[in-house]
Amino acid sequence: MASPSAPTHILAATRKGLFTLAPDGASWAIERVDFLGDNCSMAMSDPRDGSTYCALEHGHFGVKIHRRAKDQSAFDEIAAPSFPPKPEGLIDTDGFGKTIPWSTIKIWALEPGGYDKDGLIWCGTIPGALFSSRDQGRTWDLNRPLWDEPKRQKWFGGGADLPGIHSILVDPRDSNIVRLGVSCGGVWVTRDGGQTFANEGNGMWADHMPPEQMHDPNIQDVHCLAQCKGDPTRLWVQHHNAMFYSIDDGQSWIETKDVKPAVFGFVVVAHPTDPLTAWYVPAIKDEQRIPVDGRFVVTRTRDGGRSFDVLSRGLPQIPSYDLVYRHGLAVSDSGDDLVVGSTSGGLWVSSDQGDSWCAAPMRLPPIHAVRFVHA
Amino acid sequence: MPRVVFAAALQRHVPSPPVIVEGAHVRDVLDAAFALNPRLRSYVLDDQAGLRKHMSVYVDGVAIRDRSGLSEIVSEASEIYVLQSLSGG
Predict the structure, then answer these.
(1) Lower CB density within 10 Å: C or N end of chain B?
(2) Sorting pLDDT into bands at 50, 70 and 90, what band is B87?
(3) Torsion sign over Cα A81, A92, A100, B70
(4) pLDDT per residue over A341-361, tens digit each?
(5) Is B23 within 8 Å of B31 (Cβ atoms)?
(6) Where is A146: in which H helix or E strand?
(7) Residue B62 forms contact with A (CB below 8 Å)
(8) Which residue does chain A place closest to B55, by CA atoms?
(9) B76 near A CB under 8 A
(10) Which three-class secondary structure string do you get for A180-200?
């Protein structure tokens, strides 16, 4: 099997546009800027056809998606996921009793549907819904089995006002297996391409819930869910009050305790082939959400979560208050390259698995998501 | 026939010059305008076909109140402005 190619671009989805970076000597430079001034909540490069998707969240005009084919210079607006008419008189509320609007508020996850499913795109939204497109985003369907699942009404928002789906993992063994991370609704999985769903995995606990509900898998505030592509039985979670991993395909979750400098954070990424390696970005929980002691660091485990390295070389150790959201850290196909983007607009790249970092010579708008693009 | 003017802020997303269309209620008038410019619909209305949270519509200088039904009456000589609210910016 050929070694994975080096990344050719970085996509940075920011509060003020989509920035595409390309290698520039030992660093990265801005190659193009799209939608400058507009809130870009998510971007995705589809490795099956080289196309780029960009989700916009206009303050007044709603959520939109634009797509650029590989050899196309400009983006074209395509359809955005849209809810069907809400039945007259239907009461649809979340776990706190708040009314769930049947209208797309945020596109929080976009993922290609697998190499054997040409054109299939999955999309997670706020409010917590899963959409799919079978035609590269020209049309979208609300996934009714999940939307009509009564347990959905126990979900609630964490940080955001309403529940949402932010992590979508298409299983490398079988693209009909798709895992979802929900804030706050735990981990859900389908094994039949979206016809049925189950809320799986015991072991997580929520310190902000009453004792009777603390261990309910359906209320867990999973901030981010990650999977090792080379060993998909190995999963990682950055949770609201803890870090968890699973070694049994998500059937059970084990807490990683006493991780310095903090167990709070939003993001985790898994090494693509080494099931024991993953990276997190810690912060002071949860009322403050800033780096511990004003030192911006990434943490890395190489032994399956038993111990962690604190990675700081090249990251700002002067007073630094960069926060990284759940899509703000990415790893390349080889596992060697990392990119991290912060809500203060800082972007750093590593080519040695996080041992050292180089600041990209730019200050970007607040960064929602970063992605590597491979040729 | 009523004349519909769209917010300047919309123009860079969807070019939308003023249109003169038929209709007796705000809903009819907007539907007629969207028939001429289909992309515009989702910029003004949400998934349930109500006025987006941070949009406003004025009929002859008066903001409409029926944001979900868009049932306000429109006259032959009405001027309708579809604007972004200052909220939501």
Answers:
(1) C
(2) low
(3) positive
(4) 999 999 999 999 999 999 999
(5) yes
(6) helix A144-147
(7) no
(8) A60
(9) no
(10) EEEECCEEEEECCCCCCCEEC
Sign of CA pseudo-dihedral A76, A77, A78, A81: positive
Distance in angstroms (rounded) separating the CA atoms of residues A231 and A271: 10
Helix (H, G, I), strand (E, B) or coil at A118: coil
Other beta carbons within 10 Å of A97: 9
Q: Say whether pTM exceeds 0.90.
A: yes
Return the number of other C-beta atoms located less than 10 Å from residue A14's C-beta: 26
What values do phi and psi take at B33, rounded to 5?
A: -65, -40
Q: Which residues of A touch B (CB under 8 A)?
A: 58-62, 64, 77, 80, 82-83, 85-86, 101-104
∠ Cα B86 A108 A198 (to 5°): 135
Beta bridge partners of A235: A227, A246
Length in residues, chain A? 375
Length of chain B: 89
- Per-state percent for chain A, helix, strand, coil, to nearest 5: 5, 40, 55
pLDDT at B51: 97
> For residue range B11-22, what is the model confidence (pLDDT) as tens digits?
999 999 999 999
Phi, psi of B32 (to 5 degrees): -65, -40
Q: Work out the number of other CB atoms within 10 angstroms of the CB of residue A84.
A: 12
Residue owning tokens 């429109």: B74
Residue A284 CB burial class (10 angstroms; 0-12, 13-18, ≥19): middle
Q: How big is the CA angle at A131 (ends A125 and A136), to the nearest 5 degrees?
A: 115
**Chain A residue closest to B12 (CA)?**
A35
